[in-house]
Design brief:
Layout (H helix, E strand, L loop, with lengths): L1 E5 L10 H9 L4 E5 L5 H7 L7 E6 L2 E5 L21 H13 L2 E4 L5 H4 L6 E6 L10 H17 L2 E4 L2 H7 L6 E3 L6 H4 L13 E5 L8 H10 L4 E5 L12 E5 L6 H6 L3 E4 L13 H8 L4 E4 L12 E3 L5 H4 L10 H10 L2 H18 L1
Helix pairs in contact: 1-13
Length: about 375
């Protein structure tokens, strides 16, 4: 099959579900990973990645494409674009691929205004987040909320990462499948320790840091023990914390992440307890667990499903009592290996491919 993958993030960002799924799919299919378009206006105002298009080969059957954004406006303005004019330039650039592809795989609600013009193709919507809750501007929130609702209706196949999404959408739509996140094979090959953690000093977090990140947890940890240090690896949109015991490691290469996580005594998943929390099936927790690291995580509908491996807290006041309980999730290589086999990206994508196969047989 030829799969047009409309992605939510750039391929060279810290590797998450979109890149992992695209890479695994490309073992058996031709995959065209379409990065978010950078509009010329955004580039003029903020700089960063160029608005000019690019195409590169990322694997034997995997291509990464960024469309030329000189004639497109920012996605947040599409709420006013009732006729879809803003997507004409993107549609023109993708016309040959759209005609040739068998499946249009959508990983971001912001692509709806383009996808609605595509006819007679199998549309897959991989709903990973409640994206409008992550957006900063009012217009972007409106655009993403509408896009997610419309894509849910339009999609022939709907994959969801969280149980909450599944419970909400399964009664309304026939072909809804719960496919949680997973761990990369790069982590599975890293040697790990099964010895108890003797001395806890270094707490660490990997991933993007935004308004959903609970800084109160960091402040409480610093207050509990003067020897505690906090290490944050990922793009940080918050104001840096003044305490010298908080170390911002910045965005790290995918090849460095395992070593970064290995340097932590306890790994953190400290999201705020907002409506967003129960919708997030965190990739970072699978990565922490794959390296057999103790994990201190906020209690949610998703983390509760992995409770046997985690140390959960419901409020900041519980941290002092919970830290001594944090331990390695696996006491033996056999337990660890079983977890990796059941929760690897290859396993998840095999389940997705079976759904695609069933859909083709039905039609």
């Amino acid at each position: 099959m030829k799969i047009l993958y409309l992605a939510p993030i750039y391929y060279d960002d810290m590797k998450q579900r979109p890149q992992q799924v695209a890479q695994c799919l490309s073992k058996n299919h031709d995959v065209y990973y379409i990065e978010p378009t950078v509009s010329s206006l955004r580039w003029l105002l903020k700089g960063g990645r160029t608005f000019l298009g690019r195409k590169k080969r990322a694997g034997k059957r995997l291509w990464v494409i960024r469309l030329n954004g000189s004639l497109t406006c920012h996605k947040s303005m599409e709420i006013f674009d009732l006729c879809g004019v803003n997507n004409w330039a993107e549609l023109f650039q993708l016309s040959r691929l759209i005609a040739a592809c068998d499946v249009v795989w959508v990983g971001y609600a912001g692509w709806y205004t383009l996808v609605r013009h595509i006819k007679n193709k199998c549309i897959v919507f991989d709903k990973m987040d409640e994206e409008y809750l992550l957006a900063s501007s009012v217009f972007q929130k409106m655009t993403l909320k509408r896009g997610a609702q419309k894509l849910t209706e339009l999609a022939d196949i709907l994959f969801v990462t969280s149980r909450l999404f599944y419970e909400q959408l399964k009664p309304k739509k026939e072909h809804v499948y719960w496919i949680p996140n997973a761990v990369s094979s790069q982590f599975a090959s890293v040697p790990v320790s099964y010895a108890p953690v003797a001395d806890v000093k270094r707490f660490g977090y990997i991933g993007t840091i935004g308004e959903w990140f609970d800084t109160a947890v960091i402040e409480k940890l610093l207050e509990l023990d003067p020897q505690y240090e906090i290490f944050l690896a990922g793009r940080n949109y918050l104001k840096p914390m003044a305490d010298k015991r908080v170390h911002d490691l910045g965005v790290r290469k995918n090849s460095e992440l395992a070593a970064v996580i290995q340097s932590f005594d306890i790994c953190l998943y400290n999201f705020k307890q907002t409506p967003l929390l129960d919708t997030v099936n965190p990739v970072k927790i699978y990565e922490y667990l794959s390296l057999n690291k103790p994990v201190l995580a906020v209690k949610s509908k998703e983390t509760s499903q992995l409770e046997q491996y985690l140390t959960l807290y419901s409020s900041v006041d519980e941290l002092a009592a919970q830290i001594p309980k944090a331990k390695r999730p696996f006491s033996s290589p056999a337990q660890h290996r079983r977890f990796l086999e059941e929760n690897c990206w290859e396993s998840r994508v095999r389940a997705m491919e079976q759904v695609l196969k069933n859909d083709r047989e039905r039609n």
